[in-house]
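User: Second chain of the day. Same drill as before.
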Amino acid sequence: MTLIIASLFLPYQPQFELDAQLSDGSELVDSNLVKVNNQSTEQLKRHRNGSVNSSTTPYSGKNASQEFLGSTESDQNSQPAQFSLEGPMSSEKFMQSLTANATASQSPANPTIGNHRAHSAEAFFNNPVNGQRMTSGGSSVPETPESVQQPISSHDSTANLLRNVNQSLLHQSVLNNANNSQFCAEGASKQPSGNSNSTVVTPKSRSVPSVNNAVVNFAKVKRQQQNATLPSMRRVAARSSGGPPAPSNLKFSELAGGDTHEHAVLGSDSEEESADNSDSDLEADEDHEYYVPKFGGYSNDAKIRSSILKTSHELFAKIPWKIVPSDKGNGALKNAIFTAVRERLIKDPVRFVGTVGIPTDEIPNEISKKIVEKLEDEYSSSTVIADDVTFKGAYKNFCKQILWPTLHYEIPDNPNSKAFENHSWSYYQKLNQLFADKIVSVYKEGDTIWIHDYHLLLVPEMVRKELPNAKIGFFLHVSFPSSEVFRCLAQRENILMGLLGANFIGFQTKEYARHFLQTSNRLLMTDISETEAKYRGKIVSVKSTPVGIDFFDLNSQLRNEEVLQWRQLIRNRWKNKRLIVCRDQFDRIRGLEKKMLAYERFLKENPEYLEQVVLIQITIGAEKDSIAERNIMLVVDRINSLSPSVSGSQPVVFLHQDLDFAQYLALSAEADAFMVNPLRGGMNLTCHEFASCSEDKNSPLLLSEFTGSANVLQGALLVNPWDIKAVSLSIKKALEMPLYEKRQNWKKMVKSIIENDSDNWINTSLQEINFAWEFSKERSTILKLSLEEIKRDYQASKKQIFFFKISEPPSPKILSTLHDLASRHYVYVLNSFSKATLENLYNRVPGLGLMAENGAYVKVNGIWYNIADETDWIDDVVKILDDKMERLPGSYYKIADSMIRFHTENSEDRDRVVGVVGEAITHINTIFGGRGIHAYIHKNIMFVQQLNLSVNAAQFILKYHNKTDRNSSTSATPTEMTSSPSPSYLGTNDNNGSGNYFNFPVKSSQHHLDFACVTGSSSPVLEPIFQLIREEVRRGSLRYGYTIVYGNATSTYAKEHVDGLNELVSILEDMNQKST
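Assistant: Same format as last time:
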């Protein structure tokens, strides 16, 4: 048996590495198949605005664009000195800047879009203040793990460009002369290369076309994309064929300098971050321009011109590649699985199913096949190959711009979202189908399928259609909104039905699980309980199983030498300062602006803290909301302007740069408070990590009450991020909290973390999946009724009872059969009719027992007993239904003694039936659920009645006849209808060892019931009786028990099946004749 784990990204990915001296990469010069990383553009901006003497970071030889690959070896060695662009800043350099002198924390005086944004801390700290350039001097910092970089050489021929040249011309000149520079290809992995001289190359993905139709012709789209890169290369060839151009240093058009692109972001252990932090070239869908040479074309040699028409397929067919750990995907999931496997908590083999996380269209088929085989054979990973258009349309458009905001209570309302919603749904369906097909192809009998997160909401149902008996679980790592929000999705029903294909659905909190159940109840009219959803004969288990971390493993890492060194640097940098640390994604949901407003209010109301407190805000991810960005930075600028000193540390250090894990642990360990206040979120494991790191300081955690973590972490200071004043007061409370209180709160948090760690999440989730599957298997195992077996058991028994659920008026044949059975055995008929109706229908069958209104009233030996406890709720429910009738003309309700039936078969507006009835069910179950009143749908009729009446009636009948004999003169003294108590008042369990019968104040029967037969079509009324009889047999209270269902029943507690009621009647007639 294998545990199949399906998530969007595999934990491994291929990495193409090209030798820096290889000249075969010239085929892709200006093909525009790879974008220049946004970091390079930012470095250019910094050099242009800064002094030529500012420190630079030569490229380290890790990443290169395919534009660079076009230069020949001779070109690379033609100049003695070469301008070097800064590459991505190393983590050591970043922390060196972070721990530099105080002036580095100044924010821009007039923040504008792009001014404060930096892909490294150095760029942020070097922003000019009051017209002067700020430096991040390293002299005051002790020895750091990284040496200080050298400035640009004074004889660099391009140095003057930094002061004088137009930015686009500077970009072109640099690209022409980047013989030894190496650009970071878009989407390039940040994993270290095994070869210091190698270059990581990743193909550029294709763009999603502008499609307005609801139905997309995928074949046509693919053909369009296959031709997308040809025009630019053909135009280049035509230019060069007309003769050698005049010498020029301008290889690229001026558009090159203005093109901006997204870059890959490292995955995170944080549940919320990792769930929405996988941006790479696969997801980027920016408009791009073809690089067309100007002013005479290229000045390079003939080799480039002759090979310009070759495609990237040829290059990627030659470049060596290897499999490396992927930095994309859900870090919490990967860490939990790998830890469980290492500690043998998961003993079965584990197989991952997902995409490789890089564009695949430009990789040759034979190379893709080899990658897939290597991942399959050596890494137990089954690869889903989706074309770039499908992946980007599904992920970037539908997941990120429609699903993600809606799940976090941010309903998309901009026109762009509406425009692509329909065709992005088609991409989403296609991607989910690819995952389902792959899972089905690798599945073997007995495997467990565990599907993860909002990218794959349709996969459970798709797999279920192909594998009806498979063991399927699903876990949603983000929040699930209320039904009022979720119903805004156009594809709401399809998504819910997709999830209900699983046996078990896990959520981070009970609140999210309840929201899902209520939404299913409202939109699909599923019958729900606290932990179950019943839909189309299936029962799906729905529970909360919060994700966690390994506290002891994380805590042990605090003693690593590297972490200790960074902690010392941080203490030296901020002596006598109180640090408030925050780490968030850069988006509106994280509440960054409200956090800054609360901090601003705190400082204004407590000015004595201006020189004592520093808030370090680390943001990760590619921000796209320029309005939110500007608003946040305006607040940051106002806060920093409050500082009375321009030479000391400013109150806010705002960094758009993530840390290495060791640095992150060090900063968390040195924090005097940690603040997490998203407006809505799932399980933010950053909180758990902080508490694990704060063993020495026991610093308080300020946590938004709207996160999933707030339901788990005891001891955190819960805040409402919308209440600016209350948050500011909480900041002061956290900083002034006594040591003993901090210690107590920290212990509570640690206890919560240990109790809900990653091992517990894995173990609980897999157990719940298995239990739900066993339960479903038990219900779905239906055997054809064996006539010989039931006859044998019937004849071997001495005291028999029969329960029949007959919903229609009985035929003469049925009445005759019931008459014969009732003359010799105990026989009861159950349905929803009233007492008077049942008596009129069956008055010709003497001795027949009746169970009216689904068991609310029971007639035994001619006396009616009341099973229902109360009926005073009916008037209140009628008021609700009156309102629904006004909204749904043609609907009506019928009131019985213990129930209400709401009919909609004659309603005029059929399209509104589901919505109105769903609202009624949700409304009634919410208000009256605590009183045991339940609304449900059966055969398109809504019933409102007390819970468990049928099974309570059956228990009462069994108890009654086990205490009396059929021909006995002694019987239980009945209580008249007008004052009859419920069975709970008729006695308590006896003490003779059986423990399952009512006590009656009468002489015991000579024989207990030893044969019971329950039959009827599957329904919410009859299923509990099926379950009761099977339980009685298992406990030994009944010797023979038959639960027989007829009609279509895909999931039932019944163990035997017949084709219909007529067949059953014939079998019973035969049995009765042979027993006489």
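The two ends are 53 Å apart (CA to CA).

User: Great, on to the next one.
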